[in-house]
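Postdoc handover notes: sequence design on the structure in folder B. Input tokens:
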């Protein structure tokens, strides 16, 4: 397998963690000569990813709750009370 470029590694890192990689760490992996698949596997195994994923899931639940409260519930009220004809 071909070695990954720093750009490829940066893109993978951002995809996994939602932020840019530390320049020192990025240099380490680039100089190590790692493939994109090996880097991806190594990043997937990181505890930080599990924490980031858990936080992302909590944020997603919060966003869904807000959507329900601000959009879906008012629309249900409008539809159930016959106000729909006014819209």
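Designed sequence:
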């Amino acid at each position: 397998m071909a070695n990954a470029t720093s750009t490829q590694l940066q893109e993978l890192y951002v995809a996994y963690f939602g932020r840019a990689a530390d320049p020192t760490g990025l240099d380490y992996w680039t100089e190590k000569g790692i493939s994109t698949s090996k880097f991806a596997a190594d990043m997937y195994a990181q505890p930080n990813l599990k924490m980031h994923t858990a936080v992302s899931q909590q944020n997603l639940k919060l966003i869904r709750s807000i959507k329900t409260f601000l959009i879906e519930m008012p629309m249900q009220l409008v539809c159930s009370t016959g106000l729909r004809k006014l819209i």
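Context for whoever picks this up: The chain has two domains: 1-45, 47-87. Don't rerun without checking with the PI first.
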